[in-house]
Amino acid sequence: GNSVTQMEGPVTLSEEAFLTINCTYTATGYPSLFWYVQYPGEGLQLLLKATKADDKGSNKGFEATYRKETTSFHLEKGSVQVSDSAVYFCALRRGSNYKLTFGKGTLLTVNP
Amino acid sequence: DADVTQTPRNRITKTGKRIMLECSQTKGHDRMYWYRQDPGLGLRLIYYSFDVKDINKGEISDGYSVSRQAQAKFSLSLESAIPNQTALYFCATSDPGTSGDNEQFFGPGTRLTVL
Fold first, then answer.
1. pLDDT of B86 higher than 70
2. pLDDT band at residue A24, thresholds of 50, 70 and 90?
3. Rounded Cα distance, A2 and B27, in Å
4. Do B61 and B72 touch, CB atoms closer than 8 A?
5. Residue B104: closest CA among chain A residues belongs to which residue?
6. How confident is the model at residue B101 (pLDDT cuts 50, 70, 90)?
7. Would you call B45 and A103 a contact, using CB atoms and an 8 Å cutoff?
């Protein structure tokens, strides 16, 4: 079946540090890949997505590249801000039923 | 106004009680979902509905039931609540015909505690 494995947290960084949150997946064929972000007390919001191999999703300074050869979709940001503190979820969608399979989430805390 | 709303936002109940969580959306989406979130486990799908007449079990449907009263409303019921159903519950909607990219839109969540 489909599965998503992401970096265990929590991750604590200082402001302006470089961020990487690793995500790898198991799925047949060519899934679509997503990163969702959950700010404290809120629901999940789509951060970025990629629908085919070698696509790069980007938003708000975050980037992730769909790497089929390594089945990965790592999230990166060059310079994090305190406002980026949140839980980040990697997810995939495979097939026509539009169900999402989520990773366990990674808590990011950015200190000033 | 929020596109996906959930009521109540917080609920404390006792073991054995029946409880209903409600979700309403103004996005006009056909597809609706219920997830639960537990620390360290991410989100897991409980039920999903692709239209008013279509209800499907997710990966953890035991102990839950749902009702799709209208396109805009999707309710989750716990017939006899137990403590391990204590979790954060999210409703979500999607409509690939509109978004074209399979994005799901989430409500703010309902925090349920079963004593």
1. yes
2. very high
3. 29
4. no
5. A46
6. low
7. no
Among B7, B54, B103, B111, the strongest candidate for a mutation testing the A interface, having the largest count of A CBs within 10 A, is B103
Q: Are strands A106-111 and A11-14 parallel, antiparallel or unpaired?
A: parallel
Confidence category of residue B40, pLDDT binned at 50, 70, 90: confident
Does the beta carbon of B29 lie under 8 angstroms from any beta carbon of chain A? no
Name the token pair of A12: 């604590």
Confidence (pLDDT) at A77: 98
- Helix count (H) and strand count (E) of chain B? 1, 11
- Is B61 part of the contact surface with chain A (CB cutoff 8 Å)? no
Quick check: A73 pLDDT over 90?
yes
pLDDT of residue A111: 96
Neighbours of A104 (CB within 10 A): 19
* Pair B102, A32: CB distance under 8 Å: yes
Q: pLDDT at position B12, please?
A: 97
What tokens appear for A21 in the block?
């949150």
Nearest to B106 among A34, A44, A103 (CB): A44
B43 neighbourhood in chain A, CB within 8 Å: 44, 89, 100, 102
Q: Residue A103's Cα: distance from chain center in Å?
A: 9
Binary contact (B42, A105; C-beta < 8 A): yes
Q: What's the distance, CA A84 to chain centroid? A: 13
CA B35 to chain centre: 5
Comparing CB atoms, the residue among A43, A46, A99 nearest residue B109 is: A43
Residue A36, min C-alpha distance to chain B (Å): 10
